[in-house]
Amino acid sequence: MKTTEIFKMKRVLSFEIFPPKRTGPVQTIYNTVDELKALKPDFISVTYGAGGNKNNTKTLTIASDIKKNYHIESVAHLPSISLTKEEVLELLESFKVAGIENILALRGDSSPNITPNNDFHYASDLITFIKDNGDFNIIGACYPEGHIQSPTIVEDILHLKKKVDAGADQLITQLFFDNDYFYTFRERSMIAGIKVPIQAGIMPVVNKKQIERMVTLCGASLPRKFLSIMNRYEHNPEAMRDAGVAYAVDQIVDLIAEGVEGIHLYTMNNPYIANKIHKAVHSLFVE
Ligand code: FAD
Question: Known CDD domains for this protein (predicted)?
Answer without folding.
Answer: MTHFR
